[in-house]
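Quick review question:
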């Protein structure tokens, strides 16, 4: 084994092999993969090898498409067959909701260029005669589904990488990792050491253990997973290979395996494997079968596909593979560790392995993944993902692998975990809570405890009239909202202003003022949107998205000067409350000595005040589009502040409102939000944030690209629509049609209660963005006329919030 390498990839499963190949393809030749046994010695060797393009996150779906298309390439480069069988696939619906879900998946596939089709039960049965029609209501057909040979794929990647210059060392275990002062690593193995500039943890079933070598606890857990292979079936003799099928009601997938069928289950009573430590002596081993555990799924499967039962079970495979709490991969660099990368938690290696390898290699070589990988970024998790949290969430996710997740559905596992001091107060107001980064936050308020439950639906739900009341309270009186679930950063130091000016696109506000600013990457794309509040010449309070806290910190860390600036994430050390509505000023004025008139404390002001007895930072700003104030206090004051506002608010008609109302209110103002309208695939001018980009202030990250985008206008444009929808509003990811063609996609949608209309925001090509008419938005399979809104539908001029 060589003693130096630019990169050491730990792990020769399908993911490590793909990363290795992609690194060589990107031009890094001095790359070494270390595998403790033979290639595929983790979860890879016993995988069922199934692959498909459909994924809940369109960006992950794109990477899945890429993976499947890649097999031809690695076969050609390596000469190694991947055993690709493209059979086509059916997703079978047994309920109306599932058919709705399939229609939405098909609609999303339209703008991803996927050739999906909704077909009747009769048509499905023609394609897949093994199904018993009476159990189904319809199906979606995907021509690009099939299966591969896990051994073949892994070796094809590995050989292609070797041809590209990579080295692979087998039967060598990495036992420790030691950072060097220059940012490189000593990779300690049982067969000598290697000094590596970069290390990639692609250790699959042992990724957690490799993470622990560098002091991190990765939120992944292996689950036992069983599939069975039936005896040979006369129904298959002389026929073309059967399609892949997913039967959602049975939580099962099926495909042909030689003369029989392979059937796997994601059973409700899933069992974690090695929940704390993965044994190093586990290799190409299988776990003991437990047919009892999967019996309920098998029963449904045998009823839905009777010929499988007749064929009998020839073989059962039970093997472990890893999941992150949301079931998506964990990739990227780790905050606080130089040149340490992860590519793990990949639960669908044969659909996702190629995309993971591509994104990670680009990130390492170019400094940017080259695609929107937020849904897979390891930085989406933080301190709250403890071992026990991960265990609860992964088990929940596994058992729901084929369950519908409704847009208004909150999942129960690992809750409540994080609560703010007013949690009980909000519960007493019959709040229905949501879980955001493990933190409970109020979504909406019901009139009684009995009504405080979400009836899950793709359509307007039981919460609709209550959210309407919250929105009109904000419009006509004053609403109270908890805003603790934002990311807050305390930035201080003599070089703070200069540094912020370099990483933020807008000009830095003067003392006592607030500025909104996009944060751009080097390619001029949006990687954050912040509220910059200036407390003093050398002191700022930043508010951004809490889910992106680690993601932001990783970027900050990369760009911080050695001295002169200190950034402290506040997490829940600062919590907040906001009052919004025409009576918010009168309410707050009754509690503070400071003059709140617009002349003294205008829109976008920020000041430390005493609210009653409570020291608070108060900003004159509101995401609702109404006159409003945000108050930030250290945690121990929040309850007192809440009580004070509620008491004083009585005479102003104050009522609480929640996150769902806020979403509706901000869409009525066409205000975008991170991970919806603002993502690293959009530029600031495309996103309508051009007025927050100050190209004259001097250099900042992404400036050149932003200037270019300004000149060219960018390829896309964020547009608001009023939709002629009746009982279901857009929620995001619906296709936008223009004159009979799909031209874009919705990023957010809602019913706008202040304006009494169904609304959507979405991206379309710049060329059609100005079209007066001809737009339609497809909601649950139905196209609805959509009117492009030249200005936000509510208070377009902003007089209310400035007033
Ligand atoms: C029963 C079953 C069925 C499945 N069916 C499918 C399917 O149909 N489709 C699909 O896409 N996916 C399927 N999967 C999941 C798929 O197997 C995984 O997504 C994939 O194997 C993950 O690959 P990996 O490279 O991340 O991890 P692994 O395959 O676990 O590879 C990790 C490698 O790292 C090595 N390693 C670990 N630590 C060290 C160390 N310290 N030093 C050196 N080497 C080390 C290990 O020996 C191992 O070879 C299935 C899994 C199971 C168990």
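Suggested answer, residue by residue:
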């Amino acid at each position: 084994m060589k003693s130096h390498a630019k990169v050491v990839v730990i792990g020769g499963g399908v993911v490590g092999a793909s990363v290795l190949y992609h690194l060589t393809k990107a031009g890094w030749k001095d790359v070494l993969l270390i595998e403790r046994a033979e290639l595929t010695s983790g979860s890879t060797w016993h995988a069922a090898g199934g692959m498909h393009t459909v994924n809940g996150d369109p960006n992950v779906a794109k990477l899945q498409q890429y993976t499947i298309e890649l097999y031809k390439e690695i076969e050609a480069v390596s000469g190694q067959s991947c055993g690709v069988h493209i059979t086509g696939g059916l997703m079978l619906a047994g309920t109306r909701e599932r058919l709705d879900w399939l229609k939405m998946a098909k609609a999303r596939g339209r703008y991803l260029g996927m050739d999906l089709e909704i077909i009747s039960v009769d048509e499905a049965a023609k394609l897949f005669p093994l199904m018993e029609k009476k159990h189904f209501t319809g199906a979606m057909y995907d021509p690009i589904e099939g299966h591969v040979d896990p051994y073949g794929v892994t070796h094809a990647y590995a050989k292609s990488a070797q041809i590209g210059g990579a080295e692979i060392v087998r039967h060598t275990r990495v036992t420790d990792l030691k950072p060097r002062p220059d940012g490189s690593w000593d990779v300690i193995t049982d067969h000598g050491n290697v000094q590596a500039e970069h290390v990639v943890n692609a250790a699959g079933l042992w990724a957690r253990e490799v993470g622990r070598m560098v002091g991190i606890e990765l939120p992944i857990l292996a689950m036992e997973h069983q599939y069975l292979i039936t005896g040979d079936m006369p129904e298959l003799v002389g026929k073309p290979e059967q399609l892949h099928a997913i039967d959602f009601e049975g939580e099962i997938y099926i495909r042909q395996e030689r003369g029989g069928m392979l059937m796997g289950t994601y059973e409700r009573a899933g069992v974690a494997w090695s929940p704390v430590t993965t044994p190093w002596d586990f290799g190409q081993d299988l776990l003991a079968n437990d047919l009892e555990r999967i019996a309920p799924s098998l029963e449904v499967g045998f009823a839905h596909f009777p010929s499988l039962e007749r064929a009998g079970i020839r073989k059962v495979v039970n093997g472990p593979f890893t999941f992150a709490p949301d079931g998506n991969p964990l990739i990227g660099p780790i905050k606080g560790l130089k040149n340490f990368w992860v590519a793990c938690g990949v639960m669908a290696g044969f659909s996702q392995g190629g995309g993971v390898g591509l994104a990670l290699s680009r990130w390492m070589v170019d400094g940017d993944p080259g695609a929107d990988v937020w849904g897979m970024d390891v930085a989406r998790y933080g301190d709250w993902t403890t071992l026990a949290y991960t265990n609860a969430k992964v088990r929940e996710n596994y058992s729901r692998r084929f369950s519908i997740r409704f847009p208004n559905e909150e999942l129960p596992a690992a809750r409540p975990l994080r609560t703010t001091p007013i949690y009980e107060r909000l519960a007493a107001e019959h709040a229905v809570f949501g879980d955001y980064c493990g933190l409970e936050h109020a979504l909406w308020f019901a009139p009684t405890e009995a009504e405080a439950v979400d009836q899950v639906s793709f359509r307007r739900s039981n919460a609709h009239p209550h959210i309407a009341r919250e929105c009109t309270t904000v419009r006509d009186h004053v609403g109270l909202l908890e805003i603790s679930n934002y990311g807050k950063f305390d930035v201080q130091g003599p070089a703070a202003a200069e540094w912020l000016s370099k990483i933020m696109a807008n000009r830095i506000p003067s003392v006592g003022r607030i500025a909104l600013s996009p944060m751009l990457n080097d390619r001029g794309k949006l990687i954050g949107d912040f509220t910059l509040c200036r407390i003093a010449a050398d002191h700022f309070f930043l508010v951004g998205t809490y889910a992106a806290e680690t993601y932001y910190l990783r970027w900050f860390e990369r760009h911080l000067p050695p001295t002169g600036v200190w950034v402290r994430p506040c997490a829940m050390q600062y919590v907040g409350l906001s009052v919004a509505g025409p009576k918010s000023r009168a309410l707050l004025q009754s509690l503070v000595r400071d003059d709140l008139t617009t002349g003294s404390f205008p829109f976008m002001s920020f000041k430390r005040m005493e609210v009653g007895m409570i020291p608070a930072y108060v900003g004159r700003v509101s995401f609702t589009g109404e006159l409003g104030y945000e108050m930030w206090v250290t945690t121990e004051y929040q309850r007192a502040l809440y009580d004070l506002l509620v008491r004083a608010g009585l005479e102003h008609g104050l009522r609480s409102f929640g996150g769902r109302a806020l979403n509706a209110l901000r869409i009525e103002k066409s205000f975008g939000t991170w991970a919806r309208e603002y993502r690293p695939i959009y530029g600031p001018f495309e996103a309508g944030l051009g007025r927050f980009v100050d190209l004259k202030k001097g250099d900042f990250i992404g400036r050149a690209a932003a200037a270019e985008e300004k000149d060219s206008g960018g390829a896309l444009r964020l547009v608001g629509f009023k939709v002629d929808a009746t009982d279901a509003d857009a929620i995001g990811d619906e296709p936008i049609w223009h004159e009979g063609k799909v031209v874009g996609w919705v990023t957010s949608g809602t019913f706008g209660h202040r304006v009494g209309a169904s609304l959507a925001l979405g991206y379309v090509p710049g060329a059609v963005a100005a079209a007066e008419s001809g737009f339609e938005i497809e909601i649950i399979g139905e196209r609805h006329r959509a009117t492009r809104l030249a200005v936000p539908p509510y208070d377009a001029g902003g007089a209310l919030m400035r007033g």
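Why it works: The mean pLDDT is 96. Residues 58-78 form the longest helix (21 residues).
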